[in-house]
Amino acid sequence: MTEPASAAGAGASTAGAAIAIGGPPAIDEPEVIVGATPDEVSDRAARRIVDRLGAAIAQHGRADFVTTGGSTPVGIYDVIASTLRDAIDWSLVHFWWSDDRFVPRDHPLSNVQAADSILFAVSQFAGQSGNLLDGSDVERGLEPGLLVPAANVHPFPCTEAIAHARGPEWCAGRYAQELQDAPLRVVHGIPAFDVILLGLGPDGHIMSVFPGSEAFDRTEWALAIPAPSHVGPHGARVTLNPAMVGVSRAVLMVTSGESKADVVGRVFTEPRDVRQLPAQMVRNRASTWIVDEAAASKLPPKVKRTG
Ligand code: 6PG
Asked: What's the pTM value of the predicted model, to 2 decimals?
């Protein structure tokens, strides 16, 4: 297996390459929390996320949260927007995306849709108060949702790119610049976030980093990824560089359901090769997996589970 690219000057093992992949040596296993149901998984994940964001705010007055796409965040957002809506000062939290499909923000396939409709109040997408101008229904607690300044919400600029007839490369370049301009901690030449939430693709992909992805050899902070043919949706993608998983504070892999049991089993039993199984980047002691019983059904006995 050829070592993925790693950061110049970074503690990475491979000299000259640009970005270290996978963080601490991959001999250790992550914390694996198993919930009885998908709802319990969402609840535990939401509480872990809010706990880590709160710690970051206490430590440096701001928290940077990378959320994911797919279906996994929906249940987590529901808990955050209701039960945990007053748990921390959300006006100090910045929201970023691990990846997105190259579609407008209000498109059903956009990875921002769920957050706009469940989490965010004070944005032009609130719409709850019927005047599309302010989220007064959410402010008055009549509707679930968080009071997050629109400026704290950092989606990939797919809408702008499409509006200007630009492509995914332009979109990724603009996002990399936005990351550069943000007061983010930089470790080994790459931004380190306080919390990264990830879902697990049936092929073992995370973000939009699919098996055999060129992303492992790239140094840009954000990348355009060609449309995958083997998993849906089959559209062009934009993604963060996967190396961010290796330097960020709290990395949370969340997945549920029988359909994920095979790939969870593969991640924890197959030889480590993050190029072929990108989710193995999250198989280390710095990460936490929260899965339900169904998804955990093929975990090898050696993996310590906490219920
Ligand atoms: C995407 C995601 C992707 C997702 C997995 C899991 O854009 O599709 O970012 O990486 O996290 O495919 O998807 P589910 O949460 O729907 O299982």
From this structure: 0.88
